[in-house]
């Protein structure tokens, strides 16, 4: 058993509480939240768990091995750093931090102290994403060419970070996970309609070194609720629709074959429109899988799938995207962005 503390039990943190309170190898010892109404409600649901408004109560208890952090994103760095400095493993919600230098500092701190640092890149634990990853790995789609993500809805409208920082971490983490690479350049454009300088709708393009590409459309000002990933390969195409209750993955046996002459002129392009397959996806609530993975990594001293380096990579891409957004959509290299952020 490991002793777990939770800091931040708002809209999302309460889901973490539900899992950490019921995983067989974890004991949810503390819930910390500044809001007394939240503490009151949580005390009713979790009578065995101590409620507090002071993170020091958790950090000073030697029976707490690991802490999950689900406070507002601008506080992630400060709270996660305090947890690591107290010698405890930490799970931090996405995005790891809002500045890549701070994410780097957390990664180094965790490494120096031999502690686990895991980031809540939820979709990396989704059975449907696992399925797509396995297809890419065994070449079932042919060469993976490009990906696009649609993550749009009406709300929740955030006031501290824009929609790029709020929603795109999921898509960036999946793009890097599926392609097993990080992008070399990012171009992002968007618009603030509801609040000054907080973009509500953003379109981002990530270019990878070998010509692969990922496009991300995120918005909290949209009539549709869409959570969709489309991956186009040379031989097949696959769509993951998270709004579907059961048939989350569809594999399209569709493609185009280009015949070239010796001089490399295109002679003919033949289109193939084959069957559509809906595979059975292993059951599993992604958040539960993710919480279990954190506990397993702490107990077996193994590196989390979405470790600090993964969190840092996503923050670097977000940062480059922000720079591009400020420059009106101009492509920004990942390294250029880091230099600019440190300047
Ligand atoms: N993985 C996902 O799919 C997902 C989904 C939603 C939100 N999130 C992330 O979860 C985090 C929280 O988002 P939310 O929607 O729950 O926000 P929220 O505002 O509903 O909750 C944040 C909570 O943190 C508490 N808090 C703030 N400062 C604190 C402190 N110093 N000590 C103790 N408690 C403190 C607040 O009282 C509040 O209850 C964000 O980082 C967000 O990006 C992740």
UniProtKB/TrEMBL annotation:
Gene3D superfamilies: Dihydrodipicolinate Reductase, domain 2, NAD(P)-binding Rossmann-like Domain
Pfam families: GFO_IDH_MocA (PF01408), GFO_IDH_MocA_C3 (PF22725)
Native organism: Candidatus Entotheonella gemina
Protein name (record): Gfo/Idh/MocA-like oxidoreductase N-terminal domain-containing protein
Domain (GFO/IDH/MocA-like oxidoreductase): residue spans on this chain: 131-238
Matching InterPro entries: Gfo/Idh/MocA-like_OxRdtase_N (IPR000683), Gfo/Idh/MocA_Oxidoreductases (IPR051450), GFO_IDH_MocA-like_dom (IPR055170), NAD(P)-bd_dom_sf (IPR036291)
Extent of the signal sequence: none
GO molecular function annotation: nucleotide binding
Domain Gfo/Idh/MocA-like oxidoreductase N-terminal: 2-121
